[in-house]
Amino acid sequence: MTAGEYIIHHLTFWQNHAPKGVLDMSVLNLDSLFYSIVLGALACWLLWKAARRATPGAPGRFQAAVEILVEMVDNQAKGIVHNATSRKFVAPLALTVFVWIFLMNAMDLLPVDLLPAIWQKLSGDPHAVMRVVPTADLSVSLGMSLAVLLICLYYNLKIKGVGGWVHELFTAPFGNHWALYPFNFAMQMVEFIAKTVSHGMRLFGNMYAGELIFLLIALMGGAFTLSATGIGLAIGHIVAGLAWAIFHILIITLQAFIFMMLTLIYIGQAHDAH
Q1: Which of 120, 122, 197, 271 has its CA 20 to 30 A from that of 15?
Q2: Residues that are catalytic
Q3: What number of CA atoms fall less than 13 Å from residue 250's CA on the CB side?
Q4: Which of 200, 210, 202 is CA-nearest to residue 131?
Q5: 121 CB contacts (<8 Å, ≥6 apart)?
Q6: Residue 199 — very low, low, confident or very high, per pLDDT cuts 50/70/90?
């Protein structure tokens, strides 16, 4: 297998059937679905376990870590979403989003050949493909950003009412004049689309790039031979892999935090009247 074939193999999704076209909605990336659902359930279980084990006395390390995280998210939610009733849903949502995305991003820290090799053994197919980082799948990241958009639309209707929101769509940002209504509506649509696409693309782009760099580093180790060049590449593989993994911990945490913050900001904006 050449280097190009190796990378293409690792960037190919396990799908329910061969795609018929770009817009074929019947094609499912089964690996992304599996890992995102499992990790979502794990995130909910971890938060449930922390709440169940919470004690008024001195907390353990796990409880203390969760309490710090909850307090951080709650403070951010209070500063952005000023409606106390909305925060009862939005703050736990933001917390779940952060933990869920962090766990999905953290799959990038596993050795790139570990889970695909296990899957090949279990399936009996030496050419079976599997991608294990759900957030490196554009359909997952855009799906999450679309879910945030739907929540924003819900709060626009709930807080402003149908009439108030429709009035805002046609009168902001340029003003309440019949000649400006088409431009206002067009700008509102562009804003919704731009926020949703950038929200998902930012997460996808960073995780896809990180996954690709790990594959390139793995190729260095695969080029090991009993020669000066081969040994140098093997050593470079270890050093570069360790350095990138340590740096990537910051990236996966930061991307989860950014997605969470943008979720809060967009929902907070849905509460603001123009």
Answers
A1: 197
A2: 198, 202, 206
A3: 4
A4: 210
A5: none
A6: very high
86 to 5, 23, 92, 97, 155: CA distances (angstroms): 50, 36, 11, 16, 9
Closest CA to 93 of 255, 257, 263, 265: 263
One-letter amino acid for residue 136 of the chain: A
Please tell me the pTM assigned to this model: 0.90
Please give the share of the chain, as a percent, with pLDDT higher than 90: 61
Whether 32 contacts 211, CB under 8 Å: no
**Average pLDDT across the chain, whole number:** 89
Classify each residue of 207-218 as buried b or exposed e, where b means 16 or more C-beta atoms within 10 Å of its C-beta.
bbebbebbbebb
Provide the H-helix boundaries in 54-180.
61-80, 84-106, 114-123, 138-171
Say if CB 113 and CB 104 are below 8 A apart: no
Average pLDDT over residues 120-147: 92
pLDDT tens digits, residue range 18-61? Answer: 555 555 556 788 999 999 999 999 999 999 998 888 777 777 88
In order, the DSSP letters of 188-199 are HHHHHHHHHHHH
Instruction: Quote the crossing angle between the two packed helices 181-222 and 138-171, to the nearest 10°.
Output: 160
